[in-house]
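Retro notes (design track)

What went well: tokenization of the new backbones is finally stable.
What didn't: we kept losing track of which sequence belonged to which structure.
Fix going forward: every design gets posted as structure first, then sequence, in one message. First example under the new rule, 178 residues:
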């Protein structure tokens, strides 16, 4: 790529911003990356009930190579079913962070955060589903239910129906409250 092809404004706005590599426990412990300005929003979006920052680096490149190194030792995916059923074990994320330190690339190691603590998050859920039924607007264009909670990007209803708001972006949805 030629320098002339680079979008320097985009790089300044997105790539050359402080980024955080973190551990989150949504369904199991996972590693992730986000811009520092997105903490804790990203964790809430993932349904994490606990999270901790591992490194805070000055750019996306250092965050990316750190995440790639750590993905060999901890997962990077959330099991949305487990997360929504709230079948989650509490983990000692400080111990996880300390164990994973040895895998952080040398160039990111100066940014290791060793004196921070876990962030615990709570979601407004009165009743977690037992057997999930995912609401698909293509198959079910009309649905009536009693909202029992919100976790991550999901609405949770009394009959164990869950609605993924993010996967239905672009749809026009009307909600009536009685």
């Amino acid at each position: 790529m030629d320098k002339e092809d680079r979008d320097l404004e985009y790089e300044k706005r997105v790539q050359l911003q402080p980024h955080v590599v973190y551990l989150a426990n949504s369904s199991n412990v996972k590693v992730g990356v986000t811009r520092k300005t997105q903490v804790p929003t990203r964790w809430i979006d993932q349904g994490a009930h606990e999270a901790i920052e591992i490194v805070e680096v000055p750019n996306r490149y250092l965050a990316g190579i750190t995440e790639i190194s750590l993905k060999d030792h901890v997962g990077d995916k959330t099991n949305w079913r487990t997360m929504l059923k709230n079948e989650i074990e509490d983990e000692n994320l400080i111990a996880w962070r300390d164990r994973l330190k040895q895998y952080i690339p040398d160039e990111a190691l100066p940014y290791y955060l060793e004196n921070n603590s876990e962030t615990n998050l709570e979601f407004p859920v009165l009743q977690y589903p037992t057997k999930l039924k995912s609401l698909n607007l293509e198959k079910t264009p009309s649905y009536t239910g009693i909202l029992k909670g919100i976790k991550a990007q999901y609405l949770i209803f009394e009959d164990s129906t869950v609605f993924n708001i993010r996967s239905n972006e672009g749809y026009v949805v009307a909600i009536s409250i009685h």
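Added context from the reviewer: The chain has two domains: 8-120, 123-178.
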